[in-house]
Design goal:
This protein is of the alpha+beta class. The protein has helices at 122-137, 153-160, 175-184, 220-241, 258-269, 298-304, and strands at residues 3-8, 13-18, 21-27, 35-44, 49-55, 58-63, 73-80, 88-91, 95-97, 101-104, 113-114, 146-149, 166-168, 188-191, 194-200, 205-210, 246-251, 276-281, 287-291. The strands form four sheets. A six-stranded mixed sheet has the order 14-15-16-17-19-18, covered by helices on one side. A five-stranded mixed barrel has the order 4-5-6-8-7. A four-stranded mixed sheet has the order 3-2-1-13, sandwiched between helices. A hairpin with a 5-residue loop joins β18 (276-281) and β19 (287-291). It starts with a strand and ends with a helix.
């Protein structure tokens, strides 16, 4: 299986291609999750709120039980981007991580927490503590504001996939990505003679399975099950690619092999999602599950970027 990471610095886009197929496409903010030494420029004592200058002409909002004076330096992390007329959100409880551990400044008394599936590593553990202490020591120095550590989504993605090569590309001129984007904007998507319709609503996502022009001499019940089985991977690939989460309802073709189909779904969904809950089939024959949301849908991001 040939896989690689790509990045487009101009569009602030990154993702993964697997076997000449777009697997993920994401966009990042250059500031989000970065760690800064910021300067307190104003405050509201009644609600323990502070206004910080964290970069040239860039301000953020901080709520903290710790008392600061105007002019003080604060080490922290941008945890939410600025939006419309709202300032970026700043947190003094910064989070840092490496391959084996993650660490919050204040949670767990400031000690690293082992990631799921990783083995204890003393060097990795101590390195993270050293980074935390060096960041905290930065409060003593000048100038302020100052960027101390880049930790945007692309940086974290690179670290998570460091076993894969990374290529710099132009997503507008890349055929694999361009062809995928063309299908992302369509509700009806084809897989050979089969098709699915993805209707992503505000409250849930509805997926309809259609046999389209596919014909067979098989028994009707067996044929419908076979079609359902064939589109399972295709459905979850497209939900993953579009970054669709929340409540999902799938209208498979009606078959008596629902228990067998659930077994196949359990095997396939693990390839694309880590956090999900399968509820099974309703009395009306609709299949229900929920998938943990991770940010905005890709369609919304592409529209914001005017790429569709």
């Amino acid at each position: 299986m040939k896989s690689y990471i790509f990045v487009d610095y101009k569009e602030k886009a990154f993702g993964k291609i697997v076997d000449d197929k777009l697997y993920e496409l994401k966009f990042y903010s250059p500031n989000l999750y970065n760690i800064y030494r910021a300067k307190v420029v104003d405050k509201i004592d009644s609600i323990n709120a502070y206004f910080l200058l964290y970069d040239k002409d860039k301000k953020a909002f901080l709520k903290s039980t710790k008392k600061f004076k105007i002019g003080d330096s604060v080490i922290g992390q941008i945890v939410k981007e600025e939006f419309d007329d709202k300032l970026a959100r700043f947190s003094a409880n910064f989070r840092i991580e490496n391959e084996d551990y993650y660490l919050y400044r204040f949670k767990n008394k400031g000690y690293p927490i082992l990631k799921n599936g990783r083995n204890k590593n003393a060097q990795s553990y101590n390195n993270l503590i050293d980074i935390k202490n060096s960041l905290i020591n930065e409060e003593k120095f000048n100038p302020t504001p100052k960027l101390l550590k880049t930790y945007n989504e692309f940086d974290l993605y690179l670290e998570k996939n460091k076993n894969l090569p990374c290529k710099e590309i132009n997503i507008k001129n890349n055929k694999i990505i361009f062809d995928a984007i063309k299908t992302i904007k369509d509700e009806k998507i084809y897989q050979d003679d089969l098709s699915i319709i993805i209707n992503d609503l505000e409250t849930l996502c509805f997926v309809d399975v259609n046999s389209s022009k596919k014909k067979s001499t098989m028994d009707k019940d067996d044929f419908y099950y076979k079609v359902n089985e064939e589109v399972i991977d295709f459905i979850f690939y497209n939900l993953k690619l579009r970054n669709i989460g929340g409540m999902i309802v799938i209208d498979f073709l009606k078959s008596t092999y629902n228990d067998k189909l659930i077994e196949k779904i359990n095997k396939k969904i693990k390839k694309y999602f880590k956090t999900y809950t399968i509820y099974g089939f309703t009395n009306m024959g609709l299949f229900e599950l929920s998938i943990k949301r991770e940010g905005e849908s890709l369609v919304k991001k592409l529209k914001e970027k005017e790429l569709i």
